[in-house]
Amino acid sequence: MKSKILALLCGVLFGSGLLLSGLGDPAKVIGFLDISRISDGSWDPALMVVMTGALAVYMSLFYLVVKPRVRANLAPVCETQYHLPEKKTLDRQLIIGAGLFGLGWGSVGICPGPAIVNIATLDMNLGLFLLAMLFGLYIGKLINSAQPDMVKAS
To answer: How much is the pTM?
Structure first.
């Protein structure tokens, strides 16, 4: 129960930060991603400022708290072990997935975090985005589950 409450509090903190920074608004994200606006002065660097702040907090905590705890074989607060990525290389699956994510994000200015935060607006476009996101997750799961079979067949 403790981990669920902590997850809820972290989600509320994340969502509040998105709304407070204005990054729940797709137009604000598009304002950053559209670098052609630099020339006329309408480019919006807000996303870069928010991401820099988020990375500063994350990297500080990761290197000062998480890494030393991993080295000392200590568990996280609400889990039995840390689940850090083991793969250190780029592969085709990662590059294609990142490209598709970037195309979707750049096209509509919204990604899964803000989409979930904006559910309360009951915007029909957001509903379509969420359906498309769920469909994409389903397709990705099908592809991942078919991969071991494809390896066996070759």
So the answer is: 0.65
